[in-house]
Design a protein that fits this description.
- This is NAD(P)H-dependent oxidoreductase.
- It holds the Pfam family Flavodoxin_2.
- This protein has about 200 residues and is an alpha/beta fold.
- It has a single domain (about 5-195), classed as Rossmann fold (3-Layer(aba) Sandwich).
- The protein is built from 6 helices and 7 strands.
- The strands form 2 sheets. A 5-stranded parallel beta sheet has the order 2-1-3-6-7, sandwiched between helices. The chain has a two-stranded antiparallel sheet with strand order 4-5.
- The chain is globular.
Length: about 200
């Protein structure tokens, strides 16, 4: 396999978390396999999460840390995002980063539309991996919640701006994992990282 440029974003707002552990283990495994990796931790970024009263013509300028996130995404061939699922969605700070950074003219082009009438994506040619942790059992996520967050991430966020394919790894029971479970999860993340998948 040829070397890939990988941007890893730890999307947990806390300084210590399973998401951070997974991000770092993925990055280490990918580097060891010969891939070029950049990694950012959401907890270390200072920015205004509120898109505010901006619109497509008049939105807040990106803070330097958000500009760097976008430069890392544009540099990358593969995005890895680690995050918990809270209340069926993403943490507010992570959603705020997406709201602020994925702006028109940078992530999508509302002036040019696809055949379906949707704005043209501007981050095409990249794949993504989302590693989610939750306390929601997998069968509940599938049958009762219809994998709503996964559909949102794949279609309305990452797919909307051009990431294809987007693959998901879902770890349930994250707050109180059974003995040995975290080690098994880490092993799985390291295998995915080594494969740059």
């Amino acid at each position: 396999m040829s070397s890939r440029k990988i941007f890893v974003l730890d999307g947990h707002p806390a300084k210590t978390s399973l998401s951070r552990e997974f991000a770092e283990r993925y990055a280490d495994a990918a580097r060891h396999a010969g891939h070029e990796v950049r990694i950012t931790h959401l907890s270390e970024l200072v920015f205004d999460e509120d898109f505010g009263q901006g619109n497509y013509e008049n939105f807040k300028p990106l803070e330097p840390v958000l500009e760097q996130v976008m430069e890392d995404i544009e540099w990358s061939e593969h995005l890895v995002l680690t995050s918990p699922m809270w209340w069926g969605g993403l943490p507010a700070r992570l959603k705020g980063l997406i709201d602020r950074a994925f702006v028109p003219g940078r992530a999508f082009d509302p002036r040019n539309t696809t055949l379906s009438g949707m704005p043209s994506p501007m981050l095409t040619g990249r794949s993504a991996r989302v590693i989610l942790t939750s306390d929601t059992p997998g069968w509940v996520m599938r049958l009762l919640y219809r994998r709503a967050l996964i559909w949102q991430m794949r279609g309305q966020i990452l797919g909307f701006v051009g990431f294809k394919p987007t693959r998901f790894t879902y770890f349930a029971g994250a707050s109180y994992p059974k003995p040995g479970m975290v080690e098994r999860w880490i092993g799985q993340v390291e295998r995915i990282g080594a494969a740059a998948a």
